[in-house]
Amino acid sequence: MREHSYANRQWKWAEIDFQSEEPELRKMTSGYKVSDKWLKKVGDEKHNNLQMNRNVNEKEVIWGSLVFGVNPADEDSQKILHFFLSENMLITSNLDFFSVEDLDKELIRKNMESADTAVEGMMSITNEIITDILGQIDEMEINVRKLMWKLEKSNGQKVMNHLMGVRQQLLILKNMIIPIREMHMVVKEIFGETVQDKKLYKKAGEQLDRCQYLVSEYTQEVATMINFEEIIASVKGNEVMKTLTVITLLFTPISAWGAWWGMNFVHMPELDWQLGYLFAGIFIVINTSILAVFIKKKGWLGDLLSMKKN
Fold it and tell me: For residue 256, is pLDDT > 80?
């Protein structure tokens, strides 16, 4: 366990292993009404979790776990920050949290030195987690831009798969932002409105607003691109069906007359005609030509010919 004191020892930050140092965790939280179930299982927790003491006559405290640092391509890449927070004490896990390279631990410690309470210390960590999420959003913006131009040039299964991948990434980002926003709201609910004027708390709120705005806008952009892709696929599908229908219509005369003259009746005068074969060919060509002229006048060939030119 590593312990740090700040603001002339008015509050402290303890980094412990929530699995191997459970007795130490119980000792430090003994003065608070904390769930025994959480103390037993927190080291193995793999999901977001947020709990608090709702009794106004007891010490204000919140505890739980935050999921962050998720790679969309790897479900097992997520990191977990287990924490316990009172006004004068912050306890965090020191394994998953400090294995994340994108978090600036030195900046976290410097911000903690200027923090008056443990709540502000927690906001220092929260700000760095949100900054990491903003970095992921910036990377995703590049993918969205590439998709916009790729969709203009061509569409197909590859583009659709790319769109689905970006949409999944947006869902993961949103899933990370929601519990952080909840914790930010709960801090104000538990510790009172005095915390909302603190610099680090306000900064966290502003960053969360920016995260949610960007994710919402990119979600809308991706949804628009997916709709556009579906419209293109639908139009192309309709053109294919129209082409097949026209081809089927043009071959109807030869199919119909071929079936007629292919019947095995004994008395079929046409079969004995000297020029019967030539007559049948000319007759079928005339029928097909009449049908083709009719289709063209109806405008059913117009879109197909225009599409071919384009």
Answer: yes
